[in-house]
Each structure stands twice: as structure tokens, then as C-alpha cells.
């Protein structure tokens, strides 16, 4: 019986639970013996010129091995007027920007020495507000005439809404949030006697990190080895390597000793990239019968202080996915990214797609409210229909497969939508203080949208075990389990005879890694192709051993052995025998999967909230979700991704916001102030299964890593608004804090 | 998250702790559960030169009745208080409040004495003690003295304790048969209260509505004058000066104080006495 689709317990967990895994800070590698410890001195000011830096007192402090500033760095930083320096030079642009590096013998000495680095800041006006940033009154970079880092304001097509009976427009904030992985950023590195740098880095992509390090340090990529040990979450914010890693590699070379670094939680909240941070102006128009005819989305992306993924990639995905699951004849999207004196924005679970979904799903509800139609009905009227796939949207996405109406009907049926609406009406009529809100979101997203490839290699060892090397870089997802299941199914080898290796650039020199929900569809597909090649070669060897023609030989997957077709009593040869007979080169295939076609997972979420109309507190009572990402390899890890996605999505709707005061001081820089979600704020998740395969990879699978995040955020936001719709509330910004909800109720009652 | 360097002394008796406090004066700081002090030190917002660890003083960990009074050892942990049968029977408000603080990890470390001596206006137990008409027993070089809860909280993070005094016991009148309720308004269960209300009979303590925990005296006067709970609750924000912050303005907190006080009074009136 095939193991595929069965609930296999994660093979990663025994180690992670019983021995704590081996994260960067746990490493006791001999190469790191005698390592010095590192801490970055970070700017406490959002925008300032650096007058002078006096490191003399710090250099004389006990235990100091080195204190370095930008002036010490003899490596070039990114060219161009808005290039991000490795350490701030002349000017700081956000609170948390690294300005100096301190190295000490013992970790407890670091903070004391860091306080001795005397930096003279000459404050400049902080650019925090997006309109202020767009105005260009204060420029972040000399030699530029604008803070706009990407995109432009397109002239409005005045005829876009000409034939619409109803047009609704509203400006909506998709707030900045912190990725806040359980394991903060960390690195340890050492230069060997062979002149090579080895860096253990908490990263989602060892190979990209290697190239960044080599580029930054001005050395050949072959000189650098990056190893990703166990990594405690990344959510997109650990893609590649941050500037800190380059400085650490440089410092290790400079002082001639290994260096270890991990950041504090407060550093993580201010100096690791943030996510989201978009302002949307949505305009939606159509007919009173529910047909949407036109949709316009203007995006202003807060890029933070330096143009990273927030400058282009994020708003690019928002643009691409703007029309969502609907066949809207006319769609217009304009995006601009603007620099502000805040932490740079980059990928965070969904990276541009949650923003697109939030905008269109709020717009659909606004449209529904305006024409007085149930939001579920408006969606049904406008869904792209199953027979229309593949479907190319006006924004240029080519959707593979979808069953959007089926997904919505499934969650409405599972949730008891009609009964819930009746309960809502009953409470309203009774004048209950605690009212009920139902929120719907239907979504489609793009996974593996990066278009880059992935590597995979499969070795059958002479003892019959299998070792697979994947370019994917799991960091909590349980991908080792899923990949081992694929190979077990393909080879008929038990899972405990299969080893999955990843994350060491010497073992896997060419790879892309894990982001964009790409790992199973690319990392899994390439291992399947490598497995196919190994099986083809094995067939010839087995045929030789069985003294039969290759055409007459088959792999018996139930037994994990080769036999002559139709003559099972004629003897078998094992994988060990085949591998042993494979000769000097062994039995192996190494494949690059370059024909990457993105896939488009979809789903529908129904959120049920209760809102206390006196206090304004919204509590999520139920969330019912379809997240269709095609065939499921392992329901355990699949559900795990949905659970985590739901939690983070709900968190954005109700709780989380990384905020700054007008001077650019972060006001949520500790976990006492930044309210990540916990189990007590979440109900049991009601997961409804659907599996619509894609045609765009050999496994038929789509990505699941981000999907549930994308659906849940607008579902919950819509639910909070829906709870108060009878009072005249049409919109509440995220996070829907109690004060904000209370204010919305007050405003509605006072007719504001 | 590494504190400024400090010396560490471990006291094995109350007298030794008092002696160490006398020796170090303002430079010394008592360490009990460490769940307020240590985070402040790690953030370098506090930098005591000497920590006097009183965690070993197991004889300050008790709940017992003393006539009509319930006596609580200052080092009793929240978790133990929440599950203490004597406290649940005779002072159920405090037992309940102790179980609503933070998360299980916090409740297994934090102590009632630590919370009261830290005197954070956003903490739960100080307001509950105010509403309970509690008395705090301090021990100094000259012996013990009793401080009524109403005279204990002077300013934000400032109490009537002298630098060489150790809080050793908390005493509250038995609450048998008195209605009580606790309303704590948070965004997440583990958060500090945005506003909280502790009601015992006709006593009302407010959390986070001023620089110190306070009694809602106007509400209490109205109740004494015969007002019903809803009418009295309308006065809950009188004389308060809550924090004004972006996520919770002063006006919003005052509104919450009225709503929560109304709910707490109603619940207290309707609650079957002497049970959780």
C-alpha cells in the first residue's frame, strides 16, 4: 500500500523534541573553537547624519577583540544612490540600522562594550508617513530627487467605470507586521587554513546566502561554504543573507578567529525585515445585479529605509494577483514603493499576495454592502468558472486550475452559513450586546512564482539505503518527511532507509531553497525526476542480474525489489544488489528542474466572530477553511501549514502591527508590546478538504505554505465589519483592536 | 538581553535578607520570582548593583487562617494561590485573580509579595488587594509593622516600604459570603490589563486607571448611598488618570472602566458566595 496521502508522523520531530535540535547557537563544531562573540551597535535614531564615532573607550574595555565601523570595512557595498551599506556610513536611516560591530571574548561582555561606542548623531527629519515620503520634502538619499523606489502613479483611466451602476472606493491600510520567528537571526563562521570561509547561518537559502557572502566579501563563491543547520522559522525574512552576515564574515577574516552572533529579540523586532506595509485605494464598480465590471487598485508600498524585496517584488505580486478569483473585465493596477525611515520591508508569509487578496476581498464586501446583496452571492456571480481554466487575468496571471465556487460552497455548508445568518439576525433583533459577524474570503494565490529552478539528487547506496540531496531548505515545515514519503513510494524503500540532506553548499552546490511555497512542487518534482532516472538505470542493471531483457524487468514497489515481469517466482534482486552492481559511478542521478511553472492554490474561508459592542473587543469563534493545493502528500504536515497560516493570518486581522511614532521610534519593539497570537486567541480550526491538481508539475501539487494566511486575514476582517454592518459600519482597519472597533461603532452611531 | 553586571547575595533567613538590605541600601534589590525585575534588567531599564535573592525563604510560602483573617506568605506563588483550598474558600477573589495573571510559566514563578512590592499600576493583585482591604506586613531591622493597602501604593512603582524592609505577609479579612468579581480587559489572555476591575462586596479596585492601583471611591460612595450597580458604574472613571496610548486612549480606558465596573458589580451581586 502506498504511503502517499497517509498521516505519517514527522521524522524531524524526534530530534527536535528530544534533543532540542541544533540551531546556530547550539553548534559545537571544532572549527568554532575559540570563537569570539559579536554584537552590532544599532542606531537609536530613525534619521540622522553621523557626526563622529569614537570607539576608543570601547576598544580598551575588558575582553574586547575588535570594534569596527564602516570606515574599517574594506569591502564595497551595493552600488547606486540607494545602495544599502554593510554598516551605516555618514547617515542612519532607521532605528536598528547597524552602525558598528563589537567583538569580545565572552558574550556577556558585548552589551557593556556596545554602550561604550560613542556615536554623535545629528538628527534629520524622520520620514514615516507615506504621504510625507511621497512628497519628497525630506529625501532619504543624497543624489536622488524622490523617495520613490519603484513603480509610478499611472494616469487614471477615466472611462474604467463608465458603464457601472455602482462605484465604491475606499483607502485601506495593510499594516506592517513583524515576522518574529521563534529562532532569531544568528550566524557562526570561521576561515579555514585552506582559505575558505564556512558560515553556519540561520537561513532559508544556503546557496543564495553563499553568493551574497562571496559577492560582499569579494571572493569566489567556491571559497565560501554556507551551512543551514536546524532553522527555527523564517517566514520569508530569512531569505538569503542579511548585511550582518557579510560583516561577520569580514570581521572573522580581519581578526583571524571564528565569530559567533545571534541577535536579541528586540533587535529581531526592529532589525529583521518587516512584512506587508501597503496602502491600498480600491475602486470597484458594477451593476446592481451583482456583476463586477471594473476594479482599480492603487498601491503605495512602504519599502522601509532601503529598497529590498519591498521595492519591487512585493508590489509586483500584489499587482499580478489583484483581481483574485473573479472574472473582472477591466482591471487597472498602479503601484509605487516609497522609502521611509523605518525597518526595510521584505517577504513575509505571502509576500504581496495577502495584500492583493485583502484589497479585493474588502472591495467585494464594500460592493456587496452598497448593492445590498449577500457577500457570498456577489462572489458566486463573479467567480471564474472551472471550465474557463487555464485563465489569463487582465493583470497577466495565467491561472492553472480552480474550483472557486465549489470551495466557497464547501465552507458555507460546513459552517452552517444560513443558520449563522439567522443567529446573527436573532441577536440583532434582541439587541444583544455581543453581536455575531460572518466574514468570507475567497482567494487564489501564486506559488513558485519566482520562476527559478531547483536541484535534486538521489543516490542508492550499496547497502540499499537511499540518500537524497534537495535544494529546498526546510526550516520547520516537515519537508524531510514529505520528500522521504515521495521516494519511499517511488522506490519501495522503507522511510527509515531514506535520508534527506539539505542546506550545505558543499553537498548541494546549486539550489534556490525555500520560499514562495515552492518546496514540494519544485523540490519534490525534481526528486521525482531524479528518482525516475535512477529507476531507468537500475532497470538495466537489474535486467543484467536477472538475465532478462530490461523490457521484461519491473520494480515491485511493495517489496522494494526488482523482478521479471509476470514471473515473481523467478527470483528478485534487491536495491542493494543493484546499487552494488552499478559500478564506480554508483547509482545516482542529479537533476536541475528548470522548467518552473507557477501554480495557483485557492480556497475560501468563513470566519465567525463575536464583537462586544460595549468594549469593542472582537473574538474569533470559528474559522472554516478550504485550502486547495492539489493532492496532499502528508495530511499531517499539510494541516500543520494550514494551522500556522491561519494563526498568522488571524493575527494580522486582529492583533499585530509594527508601529512607529512620528519620530520613527518603534513602539512595538519587545514582545510585551508586539502582540503575536497565542493558542488562547484561536478557536479549533475547521478544515475542509479539497484537492484540485495542477497540470504544471509532475506531482500535480501546489504550494500550501502561505495559502491559509492569505485567506484568513480578510475573512476575519470582513467578519468584524459584518458584525457591525447593521449599525452602518462599512470598514474597520487592521488590526481590529478593541479601541478601533469601539471607535467605529461610535462613529457610525454619530453618523460620521 | 544581557544585564549590567551585578553582585548576587542569597538570603537564607528573613533576618539575613533584612540585614543585607540594610547593608546595601538603595543599591540592593530583592529578587523573588524575577518576572518583573529580570526583564527590566535585561532591557537595561533597571541596573541594581546587588540582587538579594529571597527565593530560598520557603517559610514565607503559606496560606493560613488567623481568626477571621487570611494570612498569605509574601513568597507564595500565583499558581499555588490559585489552587490553595484555604484561599479559595476564604478569599476567593485573590485566588481567582492569581490564576488570571500572565501564563502558566509566569504563575509558577511570580509571587504575591513581588507583585505588590513592584507596584505596577497595570498589575492585577494590587487592585484586588485594595478592594479586599488588605494589610501588608513589612519586616525591617526594628521588627514588623503593618501597612494598610490603601497607604501602601504611593506612586508608580513606589510603595511605603523602606529600603531595608522586606514584605513578609499579606493579610485580608475573610471574604466568606461576600460577592466578588474580577473583570480584566486584555487583547490576549497573557497580556497586562488595558483596564481591570476587582469587586468585593461594595469595594471596587481599578487596574491601570492611574499611576497606582486605586479604589473607585465615587462608585463605592454611590453604592453606599443606595445606587444600583448600573448607576454606580457610571462613576467609575471619576477621578481617574489612566495612561493615554495609541492602542488605548485615556478616554477609551475610562469608557472601559465604566463598562467593566458595571459588569463586575452585577456579577458580584449575583455570584454564589465562597466559590470560584
From TrEMBL, chain A:
Molecular function via GO: iron ion binding; oxidoreductase activity
Signal peptide positions (record): none
Protein name: Carbon-monoxide dehydrogenase large subunit
Entries under Gene3D superfamilies matching the protein: Aldehyde oxidase/xanthine dehydrogenase, a/b hammerhead (3.90.1170.50), Aldehyde oxidase/xanthine dehydrogenase, molybdopterin binding domain (3.30.365.10)
Protein species of origin: Gandjariella thermophila
Residue ranges of the TM segments: none
Keywords from the named record: Molybdenum, Oxidoreductase
A Pfam family annotated for this UniProt entry: MoCoBD_1
From TrEMBL, chain B:
InterPro entries given in the database record: CO_DH_flav_C (IPR005107), CO_DH_flav_C_dom_sf (IPR036683), Diverse_Substr_Oxidored (IPR051312), FAD-bd_PCMH (IPR016166), FAD-bd_PCMH-like_sf (IPR036318), FAD-bd_PCMH_sub1 (IPR016167), FAD-bd_PCMH_sub2 (IPR016169), Mopterin_DH_FAD-bd (IPR002346)
UniProt keyword list: FAD, Flavoprotein, Oxidoreductase
Gene name linked to the record: cutM_1
Source organism per UniProt: Gandjariella thermophila
Keyword Flavoprotein included in the entry's annotation: yes
Single annotated GO MF: oxidoreductase activity
Domain FAD-binding PCMH-type: 1-177
Protein name per the record: Carbon-monoxide dehydrogenase medium subunit
SMART domains assigned: CO_deh_flav_C (SM01092)
Amino acid at each position: 500500500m502506498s504511503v502517499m496521502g497517509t498521516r505519517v508522523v514527522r521524522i524531524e520531530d524526534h530530534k527536535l523534541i528530544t534533543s532540542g535540535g541544533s540551531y546556530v547557537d547550539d553548534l559545537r563544531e571544532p572549527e568554532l573553537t575559540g570563537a569570539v562573540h559579536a554584537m552590532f551597535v544599532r542606531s537609536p535614531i530613525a534619521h540622522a547624519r553621523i557626526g563622529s564615532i569614537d570607539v576608543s573607550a570601547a576598544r580598551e574595555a575588558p575582553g574586547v577583540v575588535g570594534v569596527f565601523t564602516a570606515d574599517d570595512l574594506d569591502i564595497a557595498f551595493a552600488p547606486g544612490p540607494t545602495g544599502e551599506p554593510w554598516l551605516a556610513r555618514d547617515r542612519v536611516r532607521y532605528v536598528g540600522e547597524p552602525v558598528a560591530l563589537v567583538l569580545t571574548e565572552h558574550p556577556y561582555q558585548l552589551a557593556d562594550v556596545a554602550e561604550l561606542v560613542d556615536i554623535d548623531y545629528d538628527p534629520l527629519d524622520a520620514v514615516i508617513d507615506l504621504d510625507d515620503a511621497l512628497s519628497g520634502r525630506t529625501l532619504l538619499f543624497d543624489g536622488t530627487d524622490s523617495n520613490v523606489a519603484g513603480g509610478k502613479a499611472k494616469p487614471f483611466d477615466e472611462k474604467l467605470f463608465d458603464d457601472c451602476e455602482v462605484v465604491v472606493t475606499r483607502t485601506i491600510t495593510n499594516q506592517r507586521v513583524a515576522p518574529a520567528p521563534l529562532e532569531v537571526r544568528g550566524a557562526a563562521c570561521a576561515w579555514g587554513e585552506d582559505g575558505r570561509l564556512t558560515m553556519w547561518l540561520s537561513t532559508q537559502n544556503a546557496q543564495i546566502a553563499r553568493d551574497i557572502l562571496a559577492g560582499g566579501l569579494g571572493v569566489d563563491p567556491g571559497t565560501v561554504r554556507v551551512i543551514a543547520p536546524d532553522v527555527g522559522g523564517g517566514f520569508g525574512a530569512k531569505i538569503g543573507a542579511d548585511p550582518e552576515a557579510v560583516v561577520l564574515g569580514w570581521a572573522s577574516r580581519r581578526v583571524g578567529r571564528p565569530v559567533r552572533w545571534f541577535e536579541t529579540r528586540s533587535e529581531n523586532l526592529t532589525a529583521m525585515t518587516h512584512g506587508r506595509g501597503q496602502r491600498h485605494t480600491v475602486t470597484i464598480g458594477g451593476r446592481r445585479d451583482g456583476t463586477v465590471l471594473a476594479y482599480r487598485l492603487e498601491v503605495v508600498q512602504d519599502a522601509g529605509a532601503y529598497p529590498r524585496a519591498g521595492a519591487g517584488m512585493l508590489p509586483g505580486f500584489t499587482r499580478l494577483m489583484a483581481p483574485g478569483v473573479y472574472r473582472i473585465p477591466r482591471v487597472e493596477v498602479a503601484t509605487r514603493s516609497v522609502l521611509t525611515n523605518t525597518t526595510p520591508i521584505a517577504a513575509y508569509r505571502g509576500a504581496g499576495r495577502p495584500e492583493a487578496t485583502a484589497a479585493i476581498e474588502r472591495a467585494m464586501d464594500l460592493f456587496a454592502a452598497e448593492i445590498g446583496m449577500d457577500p457570498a452571492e456577489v462572489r458566486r456571480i463573479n467567480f471564474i468558472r472551472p471550465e474557463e481554466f487555464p485563465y489569463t487575468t487582465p493583470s497577466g496571471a495565467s491561472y492553472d486550475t480552480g474550483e472557486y465556487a465549489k470551495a466557497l460552497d464547501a465552507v458555507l455548508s460546513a459552517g452552517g452559513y444560513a443558520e449563522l445568518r439567522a443567529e446573527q439576525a436573532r441577536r440583532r433583533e434582541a439587541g444583544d450586546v455581543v453581536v455575531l459577524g460572518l466574514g468570507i474570503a475567497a482567494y487564489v494565490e501564486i506559488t513558485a512564482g519566482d520562476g527559478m529552478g531547483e536541484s535534486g539528487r538521489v543516490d542508492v547506496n550499496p547497502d540499499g539505503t537511499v540518500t537524497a540531496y534537495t535544494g529546498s531548505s526546510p526550516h520547520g515545515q516537515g519537508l524531510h518527511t514529505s520528500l522521504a514519503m515521495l521516494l519511499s513510494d517511488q522506490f519501495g524503500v522503507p522511510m527509515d532507509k531514506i535520508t534527506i540532506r539539505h542546506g550545505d553548499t558543499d553537498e548541494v552546490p546549486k539550489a534556490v531553497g525555500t520560499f514562495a511555497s515552492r518546496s514540494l512542487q519544485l523540490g519534490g518534482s525534481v526528486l521525482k525526476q531524479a528518482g525516475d532516472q535512477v529507476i531507468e538505470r537500475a532497470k538495466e542493471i537489474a535486467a543484467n542480474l536477472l538475465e532478462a531483457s530490461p523490457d521484461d524487468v519491473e520494480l515491485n514497489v511493495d517489496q522494494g525489489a526488482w523482478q521479471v515481469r509476470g514471473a515473481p517466482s523467478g527470483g528478485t534482486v534487491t536495491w542493494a544488489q543493484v546499487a552494488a552492481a552499478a559500478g564506480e559511478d554508483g547509482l545516482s542521478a542529479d537533476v536541475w528542474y528548470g522548467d518552473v511553472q507557477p501554480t495557483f492554490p485557492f480556497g475560501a474561508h468563513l470566519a465567525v466572530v463575536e464583537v462586544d459592542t460595549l468594549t469593542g473587543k472582537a473574538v474569533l469563534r470559528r474559522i472554516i477553511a478550504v485550502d486547495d493545493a492539489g493532492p496532499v502528500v502528508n495530511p499531517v504536515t499539510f494541516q500543520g501549514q494550514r494551522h500556522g497560516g491561519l494563526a498568522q493570518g488571524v493575527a494580522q486581522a486582529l492583533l499585530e502591527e509594527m508601529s512607529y511614532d512620528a519620530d520613527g521610534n518603534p513602539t512595538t519593539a519587545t514582545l510585551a508590546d508586539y502582540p503575536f497570537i497565542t493558542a488562547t486567541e484561536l478557536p479549533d480550526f475547521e478544515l475542509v478538504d479539497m484537492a484540485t491538481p495542477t497540470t504544471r508539475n509532475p506531482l500535480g501539487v501546489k504550494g500550501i505554505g502561505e495559502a491559509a494566511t492569505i485567506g484568513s486575514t480578510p475573512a476575519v476582517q470582513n467578519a468584524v465589519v459584518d458584525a457591525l454592518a447593521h449599525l452602518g459600519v462599512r470598514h474597520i482597519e487592521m488590526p481590529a483592536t478593541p479601541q478601533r472597533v469601539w471607535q467605529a461603532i461610535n462613529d457610525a452611531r454619530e453618523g460620521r | 538581553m544581557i544585564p549590567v553586571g551585578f553582585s548576587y547575595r542569597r538570603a537564607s533567613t528573613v533576618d539575613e535578607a533584612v540585614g543585607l538590605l540594610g547593608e546595601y541600601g538603595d543599591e540592593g534589590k530583592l529578587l523573588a520570582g524575577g518576572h518583573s525585575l529580570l526583564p527590566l534588567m535585561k532591557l537595561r531599564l533597571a541596573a541594581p548593583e546587588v540582587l538579594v535573592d529571597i527565593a530560598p525563604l520557603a517559610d514565607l510560602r503559606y496560606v493560613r487562617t488567623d481568626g477571621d483573617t487570611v494570612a498569605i506568605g509574601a513568597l507564595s506563588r500565583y499558581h499555588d494561590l490559585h489552587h490553595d483550598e484555604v484561599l479559595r474558600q476564604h478569599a476567593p477573589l485573590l485566588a481567582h485573580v492569581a490564576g488570571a495573571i500572565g501564563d502558566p510559566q509566569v504563575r509558577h514563578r511570580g509571587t504575591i509579595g513581588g507583585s505588590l512590592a513592584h507596584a505596577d499600576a497595570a498589575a492585577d493583585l494590587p487592585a484586588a488587594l485594595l478592594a479586599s482591604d488588605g494589610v501588608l506586613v513589612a519586616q525591617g531591622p526594628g521588627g514588623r509593622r503593618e501597612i494598610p493597602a490603601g497607604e501602601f501604593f504611593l506612586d508608580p512603582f513606589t510603595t511605603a516600604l523602606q529600603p531595608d524592609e522586606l514584605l513578609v505577609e499579606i493579610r485580608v479579612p475573610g471574604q466568606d459570603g461576600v460577592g466578588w468579581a474580577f473583570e480584566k480587559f486584555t487583547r490576549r489572555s497573557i497580556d497586562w490589563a488595558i483596564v481591570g476591575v476587582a469587586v468585593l462586596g461594595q469595594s471596587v479596585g481599578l487596574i491601570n486607571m492611574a499611576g497606582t492601583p486605586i479604589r473607585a471611591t465615587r462608585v463605592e460612595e454611590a453604592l453606599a448611598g443606595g445606587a444600583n450597580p448600573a448607576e454606580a458604574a457610571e462613576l467609575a472613571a471619576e477621578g481617574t488618570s489612566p495612561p493615554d496610548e495609541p492602542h488605548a486612549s485615556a478616554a477609551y480606558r475610562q469608557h472601559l472602566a465604566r463598562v467593566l465596573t458595571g459588569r463586575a458589580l452585577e456579577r458580584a451581586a449575583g455570584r454564589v458566595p465562597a466559590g470560584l
